[in-house]
Specification:
290 residues, 3 domains, two-stranded antiparallel ribbon
């Protein structure tokens, strides 16, 4: 069986000679009718789409710009369905172009989009940020929405634990927020060394700022903490009468009255009563003499 001869084509972007069918997307545009493909390889197209996504800060606007540049049909509903697709293995651009090359969109171009009423307006179509302007003003422009949220969340955490910080500590808190955000980015990027360096810088900045975190309290140590606090103001050794606070909480008296005395009576078959209800032999004889 004879094998089909593969056709090669030189990409107009990177200049590499690649396989025409596997490395170039199909196109219905009359501009590329001689080869039936977009004359820029898939790798270059994906790079262009990424650049436009960053430039316009919107995947949708970037897709419109892409379709305009390479004479591809654009449709909002189709793009939204691709954007919300559960297929995360294939890039958005690949999924969109594949759908454009299927019926009933196979023979459509960007001119068809214009006839359908599609316009390219960066200001109107740019995705709106959900981050409040006050948050952007605090941290400066140019960050992603996730970056702003990361900064603001950590800022609120530090401020909650340090509500009375001064102006100098406020500066340290903002520096700590940026270090925290950079640390999270290092973790996502798998930069172990960078993460360790940022953690060290965070601890040093935190110590210099004199800030504090929430201190966990052991319920079993509450009494000891209270006694230590009282002792720090009025040390126990200053009292001359050492018996004055010997049984301040009455625990010893309670144990003697309700545990030790009844158990001894049962064990020794005696009838010893509580001191206030007990008259010894000498006291009884003096009462009788009177």
């Amino acid at each position: 069986m004879a094998t089909k001869n593969k056709k090669s084509f030189t990409c107009l972007g990177c200049g590499e000679t690649l396989d025409l069918e596997s490395d170039f997307y199909a196109s219905s545009s009359n501009l590329y009718a001689s080869i039936g493909r977009i004359p820029v390889c898939k790798k270059c197209l994906h790079n262009n789409y990424k650049i436009w996504s960053v430039q316009y800060k919107s995947k949708k606007v970037a897709m419109k710009r892409f379709c305009m540049a390479f004479d591809i049909y654009y449709n909002d509903d189709i793009f939204d369905s691709v954007l919300n697709s559960k297929d995360n293995k294939k890039p958005i651009l690949s999924q969109y172009i594949v759908r454009m090359n299927l019926n009933p969109n196979k023979d459509k171009t960007f001119d068809t989009s214009i006839e359908d009423g599609t316009t390219f307006n960066i200001d109107e179509n740019q995705e709106k940020s959900s981050v409040p302007e006050a948050v952007k003003s605090r941290w400066g422009a140019g960050l992603s929405d996730d970056g702003y949220r990361n900064l603001d969340q950590h800022y609120k955490y530090l401020k909650k634990n340090n509500p009375n910080c001064d102006s100098n500590q406020e500066i340290f808190i903002q520096d700590l927020c940026f270090l925290h955000m950079q640390k999270m980015e290092s973790i996502k990027a798998g930069d172990k060394k960078g993460c360790i360096d940022l953690m060290t810088a965070y601890r040093n900045t935190f110590d210099k700022a004199g800030l504090k975190t929430v201190e966990s309290i052991d319920d079993d140590a509450c009494l000891g903490r209270f006694v230590g606090l009282i002792g720090s103001h009025i040390p126990e050794y200053i009292y001359k009468d050492k018996e004055l606070y010997k049984d301040a909480d009455g625990i010893d008296e309670y144990i003697e009255r309700h545990i030790v005395r009844p158990v001894n009576n049962i064990k020794n078959k005696t009838s010893i009563r509580d001191p206030e209800y007990c008259i010894n032999d000498m006291e009884e004889s003096s009462v009788n003499d009177e």
